[in-house]
Protein: Hypoxanthine phosphoribosyltransferase
Amino acid sequence: MDPSDWIDVTTEKNHYSLNHFVIPSHYERDVSSILIPHGVIMDRIQKLARLIVDDSQGPLVVCCILKGGHQYFADLVNEIKKLRRNNGSSVPLSLEFIRVKSYTNDTSGGVNISLTDEQLKEFEGKNLLIVEDIIDTGATMVHLLNRLETYNPKSVKVTSLLLKKTPKSNGYIPHYVGFAIPDAFVVGYALDYNEYFRDLDHICVISDEGKAKYAV
Ligand code: 5GP
Structure:
């Protein structure tokens, strides 16, 4: 996927006022703007599913990166199931769920993966599709991919709904990107701040008041 095919919502004019859409009243003061309304997210996922199915070369093991990726994963899998390849065939899917934690204070870098060695060995020879909610610095994804490669999958592709444009990026770019977003902390559509906002449908920028209210 070429970067010109990402939807770029990085500028000020891409932010919708809170008056333009419905926000749950318990979050009204906790977000400053709506960056991507839920309907646009859903329409974009249809297109990402189409691109993934068109490129697919056989059965896919679709890997959900928990917890933030679960909503995107669920909606993407639903769309992929509806689609056929050009030759009329559908794509056989199996689903896997991986909880990934970066060792942030470890200079060697790395990730803790919730699957056992035995479970990871099952990936050998398979086509993996990793489904992530957001790439920020790219560190988590690069560590995860290095780890998965050691189990010799046939192919590994990554889709991230959001790619943050940040100077802290390590340059990693997923194969399928929904939206390029500004360097701000976003919540909603299962992206959380200390476990809050997972019940907000739109992707929003958190406000200073929201950060203070839900700080731990
Ligand atoms: P990275 O390793 O790419 O810097 O960070 C990846 C993880 O950081 C994401 O999977 C996500 O959990 C978290 N993250 C980064 N930016 C944001 C953000 O703007 N909002 C939320 N909710 N999580 C974020």
Remarks:
- The chain has a mean pLDDT of 92.
